[in-house]
Structures are given as structure tokens and as C-alpha cells.
Amino acid sequence: MFSKQTYINRRQTLKEKVGSGIILIFGHNDAPSNYPNNAYMFRQDSSFMYYFGQHRDGLVGVIDIDNDREYLVGNDIDIDDVIWTGFVPSVHDLAEEVGIHDTAPMDRLKHIIGTATEIHYLPPCRHDIMIQIGDLLGIHPAKVRESASLRLIKAVVDMRAVKTDEEIEEIEKSITVGYRMHTAAMKACNPGVSESYIGGVLAGIAQSYAYRESFPSIVTMHGEIMHSNPSTQPLEAGRLLLCDAGAESIDGYCSDHTRVTPISGKFTQQQRDIYTIVEACHDLVIEKAHPGMKWLDMHLDVCRLMATRLTDLGLMKGNPEEAVRAGAHTLFLPHGLGHMMGMDVHDMEGLGQIHVGFDDEVRPSTEFGLECLRCGRRVQPGWVMTDEPGIYFIPMLIDKWKAEGKYLDFLNYDRIEQFRNFGGIRIEDDILITDTGCRVLGKETIPYHIDDVEDFIS
Amino acid sequence: MFSKQTYINRRQTLKEKVGSGIILIFGHNDAPSNYPNNAYMFRQDSSFMYYFGQHRDGLVGVIDIDNDREYLVGNDIDIDDVIWTGFVPSVHDLAEEVGIHDTAPMDRLKHIIGTATEIHYLPPCRHDIMIQIGDLLGIHPAKVRESASLRLIKAVVDMRAVKTDEEIEEIEKSITVGYRMHTAAMKACNPGVSESYIGGVLAGIAQSYAYRESFPSIVTMHGEIMHSNPSTQPLEAGRLLLCDAGAESIDGYCSDHTRVTPISGKFTQQQRDIYTIVEACHDLVIEKAHPGMKWLDMHLDVCRLMATRLTDLGLMKGNPEEAVRAGAHTLFLPHGLGHMMGMDVHDMEGLGQIHVGFDDEVRPSTEFGLECLRCGRRVQPGWVMTDEPGIYFIPMLIDKWKAEGKYLDFLNYDRIEQFRNFGGIRIEDDILITDTGCRVLGKETIPYHIDDVEDFIS
Questions:
Q1: Could you write out the DSSP letters of every residue in A118-162?
Q2: Is this structure's pTM higher than 0.90?
């Protein structure tokens, strides 16, 4: 948690941006895993934490702009619960900690709203909150997300997108934990060890620091499958292991890194050929990213470098610039260059990617490859972005495109066939857009230059 | 997964028990953590796994008893998803694996139900399923749980309560993982290490075997708080660390154990005095539990032994039998002796504890202490129960009762005051009710006799 004044200031700014009406920010409830009392690890709503700071379940923050009042709404815990959960501060004490003087039990929420007609809320991701809002406002739960307040969404995105120094400090703490997770995973990456063993190392280290994984870790010899969770498969000498994992603090600040480690300890020549292209693309972003540049252009710069280098390697052919314009490179890179990161690992994705990553100038695309770009608009100082280019050989996609005769002018399918079982490589770091360019976040770099990786794990 | 025939037989038995109508068993969907695409680790519904075996999200099993047809309902995954998740078998293939020939996409579910009026479903714990059932049957989501089919609940409880040999084998595999978790935690239990570090060890080991924790691990120097999750507090020499944790396989089979470790490596005399009472209570269950006995009686036997020994120690006074009848012992043991365990760590708790642990002969109690007894009825061969007595010194409860002058004939508050900061001790193992008595499950015993514990961690 930050200082009381931080939360007071944030709510003040939000009030000014939204201008009128009542703002409701719903905190999360416990999420049942397999029965009501067996909950997943509690994860507070990020916007609730941003404006109301508290981690307890069952709270709703209310900002009544028209009457200039703020409330923290929630039920206190009684003696019977204390036996099970220990001492829990009262809702009143939680409210005071973040500069709010009025509280109320949950059954008073409807009364607080009263007859107000201008009610702003954010689109919830949890179905219990959809039911709660639905009941409160007389909407079907399935319609609750689409009735969320665009004005509130835009105000929240504006504010949360630009990270303050104290937020960057929190992100860098998460990156320190992420560093420990990744370097331990790299050291543990040996033939015969299972993918799930590496997954256990990542989860165990995150939790040992009272952090959690910022998303389900991707640990796989099949790097070409974007979201492949660890299997019980033993690691095979000669293959690569892709780990995409991050840490998240109790306050929600995230890290997100990807490293690829040769299971035998050394990269083969074929692996070096592809790895060095991804490495160059990754480093291009660090060199070029600066405020005011469209992230879409940064993405396309990376695609052109990738296409040029894949052409040198004989996997692509023709003019690389034309190939990228046509979309041929998306066989190898079907996803976007990176996303905003903050209190959510895909920052504010739940508020609608179109509001986070796009604006009137840069609209989202429906083209294959570009439709997965999570951000296109001009980046600003204080934004944290992931830099995560990758090259993948996806057998089903190769077969499909080959059968369809797609991009025959730009893709050398015979050569591609030699990489059929290669897997995939991605290198990912988190960067801060500064006033003049960008800075890679984190006090220590998780090794990623080829020689550094081989040295580190030897 | 078990054999195809196992699932066919289970559904056949269920059909016979329910007799008529249509049974709907809803599988789980992904549960969002902080935005729709950032899901918690997928956890399938246990009853869905029991009858339909499959682990994929977005499935519903249908057993139309009246027309003697079975369906697996769910949507197939297309090529775009394959890039993100890898190859996923078709719903048809998943159905065939468990002996079902008819499948349908989700938007056909309403059509399959048709005009049937006798629809049986289980009370869901997830709010997305409440909305889904609500829409399907025209009920408000908040009313869905109470409209569940009692006949179906009772049939499922009857079947799932009695574990087959192959299920016991799965539980014992989970216990093997639980053994590794607990023994590693005991070895890591040293002054200066944080509670969360031990939590990381438990989570990391579970996941390294492709298991998960069967519930959020309780790791605490404050054993008197029943559900205390690990803090960042460093372990203090002289105190005890209570770890209550278990493993759960992908098929949902659980383990659940509690051990208490002296952080300094040796128990103090005061700790020995309390520990040996809990140990004796724990061992009494192993000695006495047998089929046909009311679990409520087993609980009360343990309470009487505990009260007798606490009287010897001067913490209680008067006649122990009368003290237990009056409820004075619940200051020390405010929870029940144990619960059924299986595919849920509190087995089938989501179906309603009253249907799982009670019957016409033994009704649940509302008295303090007894209201937390999760099972009272006669245990049967094949049931798996936890044996988990504990003694706790809960400062807020002691102060409250003392101020109220409660049980002055049975409680020696002056002596209790000397244990004010003691914490709490619980010892927990999982037992199988056999034809003649019971058997402690697990190939190896996590050390719990005082000398064994001290030897093991030295």
C-alpha cells in the first residue's frame, strides 16, 4: 500500500476526470475453486486497489461526485470468524487508512446509490460481481460488462497507464522476484527433469517471497504453442525450454519475462540462427522505443528486421518490406510485440483492450497477427511495455498455409520444413518509456545473450 | 482418468438411483483472476470428473434417463485457438473416451433438454454456472443452488462417499506428494526463515509433481487461527510452526495432513504437555474408528479423552465427562474431529454438508464447537476421513468467555492464562474405514510422535 494521500489524490483526479454522477468500484470476493469454502488465492481487483488500496474481499468503493462524498462499503467480521481467520480490522479502520470517513454495510449500498441515474462502474471479470451489479441496477448479468461506463473506463486507463516513481519501484521489486524465478528455472533446466518440476520451481520461489505468479507460467519444450502450461514430459537433450513467467506482489504489481534455455547447455547452430534474430529484434526495441512513437510502428519495425533476417536465412524470400506489408511474416510471429504492464500483467486488459491500446488515431486490426497486437497507439513517458518478439514454427499453421498456397512469393516452404520440429523462441523484458527513450526495468538482467546464457547455466 | 467402463458403470448406477428425468452435470469454465483471459489454474468440477472423466473447460454432461441417451455438450476448438493452446481433442473424441456417443455444441443444450420438466442438477459453486443454469431454466442465479435436485445430490453422495480400490490408490498417490511437501517443510522449519518461504516449499513441491495444493496451505506460528495463510513473518525460535497442507491430483484426489514442528528443533516442556494430548487423541481414532460407528461418537470420545488429560494438566477441572456434555472443552477444540476426503478435500462439501455428513439418525448441531463438525453419521467401509484433533489457545475467545464467566466449574482460567501465547497444535492424518476398523492411508508416515519429529528435523 502507498500513503493515504496517494489514494486521496487518485480519487480526486478521478472525480475531476469523470465530472458527475456516482462511481462504484467493486472489489473482488473470494473465488471458489471446487466448493464455496475452498477458494483460490485471493486476488483483489486492480482498479479497486489503485483507488481504495485495501486487500480484503467483499468491499465496494463509492465516490459520489455530485454530493462530494466517499464511502467504503462492506460487512465487518464477527467473533466466530476471528477463530478461523484471526484479527481483521474493521471496515471503518480500512477506510480511514485510505482517507475515507464514511462506511456502510453491504446491504446499504442500494440506499447509498438512491435514485441517482448516472452510475459509473467498470466492466467486471468475475461473474459474482456481474450478478451483484445486475441486481443493483436491474440488468441481466450477461449484459453488465457492456453497460459499463466508457467515461470511467477512459479516466481509469489515463491514470493507471502512467506509472509514478513509487509504482515503478513496486514493479522493479516484482522483477527482482521474477529474476530469481527465471534464473533458478534456467539452472534447473537439465535433461530428464520434467516441465512441471520447472513449473514448481517458478511457483515455489514466487510464493516463498509472498508473491504469486502474475499469470499461469508457460514452461514448455513446445515454445510454438503460445500458452502451453507445464506437462509431466521429461526435458529432452537437444531441445529448447521456453519459460514465460512473472511475479506479482500483493498490491498487484507485475513482472513478465520470457527466456529460452538449451536443455543440453549449448545451443545448436540451427537454434543459434533463430535465437540471434529474436535477440536482435528484442534489442531493436530497447534501442528505438521512445515517447510519441506509435507502438504499431515499433511492432512493424521489428517485423521488417525479422523478415530481413529470415530472408537471409532462406526461410523467407522476396522483398522483406513487401512481405511484411502482405503479412507473410505472421507465419513466424502470429502475436504482437508487447503489451502494457502494471497492476495487471496485461495491464487493464479487463477494461477492454481497445481502450487501453488504441485511440482515434490508431485503431485495432482484424488481420491475422495484427489482431493479437494488444497496443498500437503512441506510447507515453511512464508507460511500462513488454518487449517480446518471438519466432515460432507451428506445424498445423505451416501445413494449412502450405496447402492453401499462401504467400508463395515470400515463404520458402521447403526450407521451413527443415525447422518443422524446432519449437519456438521468445525473449521478453519489461521496459519503461522515459522522457527521451526507454529503460529496461530491473536491477539485474536475466541472461539472454547467447554466450551469457550458456555461461550462466554451465 | 480411469477406464471407459468405470465411467459407463458409474453413470448406469446413477441413472438407476435417480430413476427418471434428465441429469445435467456441469463442468467448470476457466475462472478469471484479475481479467477474463488471466485465469486461475483450471479446476474441474469433481462430480463432472467422477461421471464424465474429462478435464477440459466448457463441458456439460447430460444423462437423459427417460430416453436412455447420454451426451457430452461443448464447443470444439478452432485453428486460431490451436496457436495458443496446442492440439486439443474434439468433444467427440473426449466423449468416446468415456463411453458416450452423442455430442452437441453448447448452444444446443436447451434443445436437448427440450420440454422436459424433471431436470436434475447439482448445486454449483461457481457464479458463471449459476448464470448458465439460471438462463437455461429461468431461475435467478442466486436461487440456482437452492433449486438443485435433492434426489441427485443424495445419489451422488452415496456413490462418491464409498471409494473403490482404484480411487484409494489415487488418494495414496496424492498422499505420497503430501508426504514430500510436509517433510520438506519440516526440514526447512528454522528460525529466521519466513512462513511464506515454507508456503513456497509446499506449493513448489506440489506443482513440481504436476499436482496442486488441495486447499490454500495453512502455515503459521499462530496455530490457534484455524485458517491462517503464511505471512512474511520470520520464524521465531521457541515457537511452533503449524502446517496444514495437502496435494491434489489433476483428477481431483486429495491428501490433507497437519504437522506441528518446533522451530528450535526441540519441544519445550509446555509444548510437550499439550502435544502429547493431541497425539493421544489422534491415536485414539486410529485405534477405535470402525464401520457402523457414529462419527459424532468418535468426536465425543476424543473430546472426553482431551478433557480428561487437560484436567490432569490443571487447565480444566471437575468431571471431564460433564465438562464435555456442557461444552466447556470447545474453548480448546472449537472444530470437529474430521471430514470426509476424496475428490474434494472436504469431500462433496459443495453439495451441502448436511447431505454428506448427516442423515435422519444424526442431525447437525447448532452448538458452538459441534456446529463445525462436518460429519456426524455412521461411517462405512470405503469412506476416507481425516483424523485431526487439535488444542488451541485463542486469546480473544479466552477473554470473551472469562469476561462472561462461562464454564467456571470446568475451566481454570488462571492456569489457561499461562498458555495465552501458546498458539495451537493439530495433528492430522487421512484414514480409510475398512470392513473391521480403519487404516491410516499413505505408504510412509509423516513423522508425528514427539521423538520422531525431533529426530527427523535434527
A1: -EEEPPPSSHHHHHHHHHHHT--GGGTGGGS-HHHHHHHHHHHHS
A2: yes
